[in-house]
């Protein structure tokens, strides 16, 4: 099930980091009831040695304007922000930058677990006012989205980057993360294995169903995204892809996210339809 959450501000706008995934995740956890937030954060849903949160969220749907230098300093002063924010990774630029959203923000939240949807919706309605990086915001609307029709072959558009990776050991014994490209055969294999685990957690039964993903409207250079989640560098992919396989697995990736790091704001998709001219 999927919600569309809209927030407005009491100020003239909202400032967020360029890499705002961790800020949105914190907003989501603060919108859960205390009991649910603690349970999901500490253990989530367990399958063997793996732990899944079984929720995901999209990028912010509004367009933010990039601000820096004197413009950023002026906005912070206008909005009454008297503390520094971590607006960027120091590895990227020497100058502090941020995104300014003049009309508030909205984004999608999704989970296959109805009690998570109900919990976040109920608290957002009963306690609409909260803070995001020290800025006062409040819920203006919550929309329950209708499920699309699922079939064995669907074209999908990423609403947040999809990431697939393996952790390997270097010769020195250090851990190294390798992010796969959608053109590598391991990408689709790992997508299938991951979706089977999610299906099992959602439905309390295992499946041998198959799932294949192939790029449709995709450019490896243009659709590659590097996102910093706190201090962790994550490589992901936007674009349009084709999913083929078991309907149950496709639905699991729609509700819980496709690929890895879903609860950090990766892997949300929506059906894609070609425009007719």
Describe what this molecule looks like in 3D.
Helix 5 (185-203) crosses helix 6 (247-256). Strands 5-8-1-10-9 form a five-stranded antiparallel beta sheet. Strands 14-17-11-18 form a four-stranded antiparallel beta sheet, covered by helices on one side. A three-stranded antiparallel beta sheet has the order 2-7-6, with helices on one face. It has 277 residues and is an alpha+beta fold. The chain folds into two domains: 2-145, Alpha-Beta Plaits; 153-271, 2-Layer Sandwich (Alpha-Beta Plaits). The chain has six helices and 18 strands. Mean pLDDT is 92; it is low at 87-92. It is globular, with a radius of gyration of 19 Å. A hairpin with a 5-residue loop joins strand 12 and strand 13.
């Amino acid at each position: 099930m999927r919600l569309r959450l809209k927030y407005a501000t009491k100020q003239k706008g909202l400032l967020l980091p360029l890499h705002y995934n961790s800020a949105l995740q914190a907003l989501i956890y603060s919108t859960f009831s205390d009991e649910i937030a603690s349970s999901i954060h500490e253990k989530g849903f367990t399958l063997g040695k793996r732990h899944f949160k079984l929720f995901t969220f999209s990028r912010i749907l509004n367009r933010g304007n990039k601000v820096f230098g004197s413009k950023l300093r002026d906005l912070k002063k206008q909005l009454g922000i008297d503390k520094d924010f971590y607006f960027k990774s120091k590895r990227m630029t020497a100058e502090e930058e941020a995104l300014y959203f003049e009309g508030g923000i909205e984004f999608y939240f999704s989970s296959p677990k109805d009690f998570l949807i109900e919990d976040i919706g109920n608290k957002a309605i009963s306690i609409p006012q909260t803070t995001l990086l020290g800025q006062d915001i409040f819920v203006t609307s919550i929309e329950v989205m209708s499920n699309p029709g699922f079939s064995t072959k669907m074209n999908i558009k990423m609403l947040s980057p999809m990431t697939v990776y393996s952790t390997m050991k270097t010769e020195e014994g250090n851990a190294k993360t390798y992010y796969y490209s959608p053109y590598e055969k391991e990408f689709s294999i790992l997508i299938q294995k991951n979706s089977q685990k999610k299906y099992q957690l959602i439905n309390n039964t295992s499946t041998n169903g198959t799932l294949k993903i192939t790029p449709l409207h995709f450019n490896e250079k243009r659709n590659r995204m590097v996102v910093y989640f706190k201090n962790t560098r994550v490589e992901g992919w936007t674009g349009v892809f084709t999913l083929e396989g078991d309907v149950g697995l496709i639905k699991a990736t729609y509700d819980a996210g496709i690929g890895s790091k879903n609860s950090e704001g990766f892997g949300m998709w929506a059906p894609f339809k070609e425009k007719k001219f």
